[in-house]
Amino acid sequence: MKQENLIYSKINYEDAYSAKKDILGAQIELLNMIRTIEEYKLLRKQELMLKLKLKSDLRKTKENITNLIEKSPKTKNINESIAENKESSKIKKKPKELANVESELEDIQKKLKRMD
To answer: pTM above the 0.70 mark?
Structure first.
């Protein structure tokens, strides 16, 4: 091989020391980043495992509730009473709503009279 002409340049001590210090600092930062990434991967894996466990637990709970509903005694009047309760709650709400509407109408009429 041919020997190439190499050019050397002199770097003073302070500059070399500063450069070496900067390189070591960069290495520390890179190692910290690598450690953080590895910790993140581990946490994501744990999160996935917990989500899968939660999903299976929810599935089992849903099956248990379904089985409980199927095994519980059924009555003919229960559906009728549920429907009556819903209707009665709707009826109770309507008078309050009507009272609010009527009071608002009165307020608006009073404002119109004042404007004339």
So the answer is: no
